[in-house]
Design a protein that fits this description.
The complex is a heterodimer of chains A (111) and B (113).
Chain A (H helix, E strand, L loop, with lengths): L3 E3 L2 E5 L4 E6 L6 E7 L6 E7 L4 E4 L2 E6 L4 E6 L8 E8 L8 E2 L3 E6 L1
Parallel strand pairs in A: 2-11
Antiparallel strand pairs in A: 1-3, 3-8, 4-5, 4-9, 6-7, 7-8, 9-10, 9-11
Chain B lengths: L4 E3 L2 E4 L5 E6 L6 E8 L3 E9 L2 E5 L6 E5 L5 E5 L8 E8 L8 E2 L3 E5 L1
Parallel strand pairs in B: 2-11
Antiparallel strand pairs in B: 1-3, 3-8, 4-5, 4-9, 5-6, 7-8, 9-10, 9-11
Classes of the chains: A mainly beta (111), B mainly beta (113).
């Protein structure tokens, strides 16, 4: 079953913050976040493993609550380059590279 | 390191034909996964190959098959093409360990007429 992402779409002005949520009905081992720009391949952002850790680099960070089977991606001080569709993907223990992706969150940053 | 490469980048076929897509993973990576991306269904997992063996499979009909060679390059085959097979086919490369990062190739855009 696909993880559920919210919101489905969001428009931000440069410098604003955003949170994208990802929720699964299954026990998770890993959560994967990707960004895809139109006509391009998904680009890896970060991966979080079971353990409830929070990761981040630059102004993008993420958390993983394994008890609630939820993850959130935090974008702070957004830049025009952040525009794209964000996908969360979930992995189960023993699933190795099998990742089930959500339907995506379309994010647009405007000047 | 060179990234993931996929050939061809674009392909047009007619219903009933078959097609073979190719993927070369990042050097040193032993796992290749294939995904189908469509506007309606999103990104869907097809299968994963690791050390020439299929390790995981998604919910696609048997018309979709794949293989992996000893140099980790992988091919995906779709037989008896249907209109609904039109999609972007992406391959992803990783070291193959549980929870390892997958890096996507640019994809092959398949159009079935």
């Amino acid at each position: 079953q696909q993880p559920v992402q919210s919101p489905q779409a969001v428009i931000l002005r440069e410098g604003e913050d955003a949170v994208i949520n990802c929720s699964s009905s299954k026990a998770l081992y890993s959560v994967h976040w990707y960004r895809q720009k139109h006509g391009e391949a998904p680009v890896f952002l970060m991966i979080l493993l079971k353990g409830g850790e929070q990761k981040g680099h630059d102004k993008i960070s993420a958390s993983f609550n394994e008890k609630k089977q939820q993850s959130s991606l935090y974008l702070t001080a957004s830049q025009l380059s952040y525009s794209g569709t964000y996908f969360c993907g979930t992995g189960e223990l023993g699933g190795y590279q099998k990742v089930t992706f959500g339907t995506g969150t379309k994010l647009q940053v405007i000047p | 390191k060179a990234g993931v490469t996929q050939t061809p980048r674009y392909l047009i076929k007619t219903r009933g034909q078959q097609v073979t897509l190719s993927c070369s993973p990042i050097s040193g990576h032993r796992s290749v996964s294939w995904y189908q991306q469509t506007p309606g269904q999103g990104l869907q997992f097809l299968f994963e190959y690791f050390s020439e063996t299929q390790r995981n499979k998604g919910n696609f009909p048997g018309r979709f098959s794949g293989r992996q060679f000893s140099n980790s390059r992988s091919e995906m085959n779709v037989s008896t093409l249907e209109l609904g097979d039109s999609a972007l086919y992406l391959c992803a490369s990783s070291s193959g360990g549980q929870g390892d990062t997958q890096y996507f190739g640019p994809g092959t855009r398949l159009t079935v007429l």
